[in-house]
Amino acid sequence: MRQQFLYVNGQDIGALTLGLLSEAPLLETFTVGPEKFLESLDGFLTKHDLSVDTLDGALVITGPGSATALRGSLAIMNTLAFTSGLALFGHEKPKEQSDLVFIQSLDLSKLPAEQGELEPVYAHEPRITRTNRDALRRLKPNP
Fold first, then answer.
1. Are 136 and 111 in contact, with CB atoms under 8 Å apart?
2. Is the Cα torsion angle 119, 124, 126, 131 positive or negative in sign?
3. CA 52 to CA 126: how far, in whole Å?
4. 58 phi and psi angles, rounded to 5 deg
5. Percentages (nearest 5) of helix, strand, coil residues in the chain
6. Most buried of the four, 48, 93, 114, 137, by CB within 10 Å?
7. Read out DSSP for 79-114?
């Protein structure tokens, strides 16, 4: 029986790419934000008559990319792995490389399952700024 692997790429804040990995990979990109990633994954699995229990594993892109998007996609996949025992294969992918080219360059038989949770690789350091508002959310006067 042929193995079924899910492909999940949540590098981009405005899109989620999902796929089934086989001789001819099937890829679909959903133009949604992280708040719709789980809904998109559910719809994708339903459309292709799959469930997490029927999958042999998932190849998950860990970055680099948007911090918010990666936290969303990895939280979903880490939760599925924890609750269902789904094997996760974490891999970095250059953001400019197409998903199809990336998938075709891999040998799935040589990817070891990650131990524990997958962790994101961010595109840059966090950009934390000070607020210009007080505790009541009023603009502070300029000094």
1. no
2. negative
3. 33
4. -140, 130
5. 30, 20, 45
6. 93
7. HHHHHH---EEEEE--TTS-HHHHHHT--GGG-PPP
Supply the pTM of this predicted model. 0.84
Round to the nearest angstrom and report the end-to-end CA distance of the chain. Answer: 71
| Distance, CA of 104 to CA of 75 (rounded, Å) | 26
pLDDT per residue over 16-42, tens digit each? Answer: 999 999 778 899 999 999 999 999 999
Q: How far apart are CA 85 and CA 82, in angstroms?
A: 6
* Cα–Cα distance measured from residue 68 to residue 46, given in angstroms and rounded to the nearest whole number: 26
Burial class (CB in 10 A: 0-12, 13-18, 19+), 24: exposed
3-state secondary structure of 122: strand
pLDDT above 90: residue 108 = no
3-state DSSP assignment of residue 54: helix
* Residue reference for tokens 């607020």: 131
> Residue 71: which residues within 8 A CB-CB, separation 6 or more?
34, 120
